Amino acid sequence: MFSQLIINALIAASIYALVAAGLGLIYSTSRFFHFAHGIVFTCGAYTMFVLNRWIGLPLIVAAVLAVPLGGLIGIGMEIVVFRPLIRRSATPLVLLLASLGIYVVLQNVVSLVFGDASQSVRAASVHEGAAVLGARLTPAQLVGILASLSLLLVLMFLLARTRWGRAIRAVMSEPDLASVSGVNVGGVVLWVAAIGSSLAAAAGMLQALDVDMTPTMGMNPLMMGVITAIIGGFRKVPGLILGAMVLGLSQQCGAWFIGSQWQDSLAFFVLLAFLVVRSYRAGGRRVATA
Q: What are phi and psi for residue 130, nearest 5 degrees?
């Protein structure tokens, strides 16, 4: 039982960590909660579906292409919606509402084109998962865990070892000082939108390979990604991985001992407990939230 709980937590954490990493990048550079991140998650899954089922590309090719196409969606939202609003001195609240509007509009577009019924890219036959340390793990779930870990490691390398990574970290810390130092802040924000949206699209694609897809599939991972980012820190990939694992394990243990209907409630309970413990340990001192 315990090994199956760990495997299930890893499966959930692989999705949460990818969503949280992209969301954290965008939040740290743009300074607003990007609710449209959830619809990019959905579009990643449906892009793979279109490329595979409608165009006829092999599933692996469709999956690989869905990731950068998700990045293009993020770039489009940044150029068409957010950048003009920022030029008009829009507040973070206005940007948040704009992103929420994008989510609602694009979700309805997906529903209009594909319908509200569940869609699948998986084979019709169902096979028993392989035995791993006493637990069952399907090939799609194994691919999801490995792909998520690989993408997060690449992101860590990008942020820590490359010129663009140093520029991103500079904009995260102090955009005005970074601009004075010669960093193209607008270009960095655009690149971050592409990278963060690509991670969200990859997460949506990996989830669709495991449990199919619906037009509303993006909201729950978005909320779990927000909780993961708050627990693990918006700017630290290892912290995001740990936060995703804590959240995933809490949900899976709750589903086993209490009932699956309490999974989302347990996630917010974990968040509340984390915030209470953090404020208690701070002893009344001001503590950074990221």
A: -75, 150
